[in-house]
Amino acid sequence: MNNQSVWMHIGAGSFHRAHQAWYLHKLREQGDDSWSIALGNIRDDANALLTQLDKQQGAYVLETVSPEGERHYEQISSIKKILPWDAQISALIEQGAQPNTRVIAFTVTESGYYLTPEHELDLTQADVKADLAGGIRTLYGALTRILKRRVELGGAPVTLLNCDNLRHNGERFRHGFLSFLKAKQETALYDWVSANTTSPNTMVDRITPRPTPDVAERVKAATGIQDAVPVMGESFIQWVIEDDFIAGRPALEKVGVELVDSVLPWEEAKIRILNATHSCIAWAGTLIGLSYIDDSTRHPVIRQLAWEYVSQDVIPSLTPSPLDLGDYRDVVLARFSNPHIKDTNQRVAADGLSKIPGMVTPTLIQCYARGSEPQASAVLPALFYLFLQRWAQGDLPYEYQDGVMQPDTIRALFAGSDPLKAFTSDEALFAELAGNDAFHALMVRTVARMQAWVNETTAQPLTV
Ligand SMILES: NC(=O)c1ccc[n+]([C@@H]2O[C@H](COP(=O)([O-])OP(=O)(O)OC[C@H]3O[C@@H](n4cnc5c(N)ncnc54)[C@H](O)[C@@H]3O)[C@@H](O)[C@H]2O)c1
Ligand SMILES: OC[C@@H](O)C(O)[C@H](O)CO
Fold it and tell me: What is its EC number (predicted)?
């Protein structure tokens, strides 16, 4: 691997293996093996996966499922090096410092960037504080160590590529990282990063559920391969990237990646129409006792809520757009309805405290700005409020994961005299709408309407 260009990926989740690793695999299949992946993780929650992948020389089977239920199996072999985890992230530092590592990409979830609604680094977050004091809990603390070593070894330029669902993901990450370096008084590294790295914005798309044991069983039956860590996703895949790689890139255009000057129309459509609607469906489905995204999407009331949110509030906010947003909405709802992808409401409901400000609040604000009350969009925070209330009551059917949640703060909110007022006054969620009387009144009505719907629906047997 020494003379090759290395794409180091931080964040050994399912998505990376179903998406970026697939594209690089397709390129290698075409005979271009000039790039390969080195994969590692900042936190210790991927250790078992990394150990097993190492035993399999980085190879694994990807199962994809079309809306018609056709399953396809491919052995993915673009990951050529596994970077084992230790508390000092030694292997990530060693690999990330090498001059032939020309791209450092990452998927560390929506809540892994610790930004305020104004897109500033949130210095009040415990993880950020810990890393400013020398810890390695966040991407910022990890990159600080990796890039310091890179500078010591000569300081070859490198692209820092965000592959998470975040608006302007390259720019927002970069601002967060530079703010972190400033707060840490790492002046020399700040200057080096400013001059020697780029951070293109990207839009990434492929629904990738957490793999369940039946994936390995199907892989064995279909291919004969005994794979302990296969991954599965929908057949749909898309990647749009701003073409700004400072140290070269794989010939991604040969495998269907769209390299563009501005990713803006794609990312807005993806974040507001796909991701926000997805979470809406997950919160609503959970509240009425459903476990899966496809069942929840096929529920007529939930489908209508999602359709109205996109049609009434998002499309007018994003128009004009070079994309056919109505068509995008319909395709997205069809993808969510795929009964062969048993994606869970639990996975998609996660990180709501980051998703509301990032994915929903801009639409609320834009509706008010053009004089239209966002009745359909208010349904999303209303559902999330009821969902959080269930969590505070200990009544969710699963563990809720939220990277920025302070459990005591949420419990205190629901123990207070007017929890909905406290919720709608939260600037971290609603930015300039926090404390706005008209918005609060809309939320009071919408929460009451959603609560009545939940009560009625759960009082009778479910048909989906
Ligand atoms: N799964 C999908 O359908 C999908 C599709 C498009 C984009 N994405 C993006 O990829 C992200 C990861 O998805 P996944 O399916 O791989 O999830 P996953 O749960 O399989 O993996 C999450 C990864 O993020 C790491 N992580 C979590 N919080 C972190 C933090 N604060 N700092 C550093 N690392 C952290 C974990 O250690 C793990 O490696 C999503 O949050 C989303 O932004 C996912
Ligand atoms: O909305 C949840 C996301 O993880 C989603 O599955 C993904 O963004 C699809 O590309």
Answer: 1.1.1.11
